[in-house]
Amino acid sequence: MAIKNIVLVHGAFADGSCWAKVIPLLAKRGLKAIAVQNPLSSLADDVTAAHRVIGMQEGPILLVGHSWGGAVITEAGNHAQVKGLVYVAAGAPDSGQSFADWWKDYAPAPGAAEIKPYGEGYVALTLEGVRKHFVQDIPSDEADIVYATQGPLAVKCFGDKITEAAWRSKPNWYIVAARDETIPPGVERDSAKRMGAETLVLESSHVPMLSQPDVVAEFIAKAASSL
Q1: Could you read off the pLDDT of 58-106 as tens digits, one per residue?
Q2: Which residues are registered as beta bridge partners of 117?
Q3: Cα distance between residue 57 and residue 142, in whole Å
Q4: At 93, is the secondary structure helix, strand, or coil?
Q5: Which of 112, 159, 191, 225 has the most C-beta neighbours closer than 10 Å?
């Protein structure tokens, strides 16, 4: 099997442009990368958005998720075209778990205090939260673009349950962000171990695809080539 299609799923407080540095690097390696635009309105809605993109590709898929997008690929990854899963500092709930269940036993990361209400039923990161705790290892002008383009997340997403965790039946990989101040690095490490994932630990913020895109692209490409 030759995996040539990469579908990229962003997380909360982001949009598809968070993959802008990785996409051309994957293209140079002969891979077609497409980013999903999640509505961030519910797990079901985001899974539907991912399935829509997956269904438009020809052939097998490597599905990549960041942050909240990890919960999305955990459910969406049951699609027949998906042959493997890559988690980038991402949530990886088990069957019957929600994202909130997944990290509830860990002390909140510093960035959690900067998640604030954004209209009725939604939350977003403050500018300080983005600069200091989300993308603290990229230039400030880039960080401000991340803030300006973020997608607010429906609070209900945190409680939506995974039906069947795709990582239990499909090959998986995990990038742990050791300097993550949005998701506790401990839950990332423990999840990667529980999943039996091939794991890469990076000294990065929560968003290594922006701070270390070459390394992230190479990790994704190697995963695709191994399937």
Answers
A1: 999 999 999 999 999 999 999 999 999 999 999 999 999 999 999 999 9
A2: 123
A3: 31
A4: coil
A5: 191
